[in-house]
Amino acid sequence: MKRVQLHHFISFFVAYLMMDVGKYFSSTGMEWYNTLRLPNIITYGWVYGIVWLFLYTCIAIISIWLFDNASRSKYWLITAGTFMINIIANVSWSYIFFYKKLIFAGFIDCIVVLVTAFILMLLIARKSKGTALFLLPYVAWMLLVTYQNYLVWQLN
């Protein structure tokens, strides 16, 4: 059995910190958000909290896998780079959409998160199909929220 290492704790800490940053920016724009015309299939606030807690836990597990398999190989650099782009785009969405109130830019950001999550899942599956499965709920959720963001943009 593998020993728990410092980067395991750091991965969870950073993942949950990212979640809190997103929550902060989301809360700054809720008054504005409630004035928007929303599609019938919109997901409500309390669901987001539960889902994102689960998804950020999965993201922390992916981060641990990346640390545990770190190397200077081209594969690892591409995979880690894709992960970083995904994380930056993920955290940026709440700032773009809720804080800056840029619905179309938020939609584009959702597409970046979705595409990089899917690519990351494929890259990781080359080395560990089990680890890649942790990204399946993330990709599925991003499909839904990207579609919802698109509908919000179309309605407003």
Per-chain topology:
Blueprint: H1 6-28, H2 30-33, H3 45-68, H4 74-99, H5 103-125, H6 129-132, H7 136-155
Instruction: Classify the helix fraction into a percent range.
Output: over 70%
Radius of gyration, in Å, reads 16 Å
CATH topology: Ferritin
The gross shape turns out to be elongated
Number of helices: 7
Q: Quaternary status of these chains?
A: single chain
The largest β sheet comes out as: none
Q: What is the count of structural domains?
A: 1
The whole-number mean of residue pLDDT values reads 93
Low-confidence stretches: none
Give the C-level CATH assignment: Mainly Alpha
Proper CATH architecture: Up-down Bundle
Order of helices and strands: HHHHHHH
Q: Would you kindly provide a written description of the structure presented here, covering whatever features stand out?
A:
With 156 residues, this protein is mainly α. It has one domain (6-30, 43-155): Ferritin (Up-down Bundle). It is built from seven helices and no strands. The N and C termini lie far apart (53 Å). The mean pLDDT is 93.
